[in-house]
Write a structure and sequence with these properties.
352 residues; 8-stranded mixed sheet; 22% strand; globular; ATP hydrolysis activity; AAA+_ATPase
Amino acid sequence: MTPKDTGALLQIRNLEKRFDVDSGFLESLKFRGGKIVRDTTSVHAVNDISFDIGRGEAVCVVGESGCGKSTVARMVANLLQPSGGSITYDGQRIDTLKGRDLLPIRKKIQMVFQNPYASLNPRMTIGQTLEEPTKYHNPDANAGEVRDKVAAVMKSVGVDPNWAARYSHELSGGQRQRIAIARALTVDPEFIVADEPISALDVSIQAQVLNLMLEMQEKHDITYLFITHDLSVVEHFGTKVVVLYLGSICEVADTRTLFAAPKHPYTKALLSAVPQLKDDKPNHIRLKGEIPTPINLPSGCPFQTRCPMANERCRVEKPASVTQPDGSLVACHAVEEGRTEPGIESGVKEAV
């Protein structure tokens, strides 16, 4: 069934990404049993994930550092080539497109990067930064039309058009991120990939940028793929949440369902770590053990080495995502079998 049939604007199916650790062909050659064999070592960054994003949604991908969030974002934006699986946008497969075939997709899908101090060219003025994509994607526009478009976009993100002559080093972090959002809006995109766009900003500025993105969503009917590790931001911004652990999906649910009734043990542990005003005696769920290396993934469930409810089945069989009565998708044998662990349940009730 195509995304148009299911109502999904973006459809990700069995997506995988591996990064080779070996720096070259010679380094991958090993001597074993009297023979020279080639043995490549790879980082398994994203492992067989599937989810949909409907038009107008703000889907948040969450998880701890190194779980593959940014890798997913860059594959959707076509900055990285998947090792397997497919990405379909509005009925068209886009992960196989190259060169000039990508231009229409570049105009529809834009990206806002994490660090506003690195994503803007210090040698270009703000005006030049915003004029460049406008001219590139609208080659028939004259100079006056380009200037008008840039001024209109700057006003829409709360930036004075007179700042066009300034350089990025003359602006604060929040002002730079507004320019980064404006740059994405110059080509009138339908879909914006935001890779932790507020993590490098002061807390006082974060709410301003989030509210700006929500305002742009309402004005321009924009769909978001929002990468973050801050669950309080997810509760404020997202319509649906995808929880990743070690490159695999643990749980997919709409935001209200996830915060009201989390099901996967890892999701419960994440939510228990969110600071609460009522936390006089916070009852955090403390996971034991270390995160396995993505070079040598554990057999079975990727979370089984730290899960308090893991059994032998979890150690040998990777769980499939199963639809729950409330519509959420959960990949967990313990949830499927109805297993419970007292500390998990009490910890999450205190947190939520």
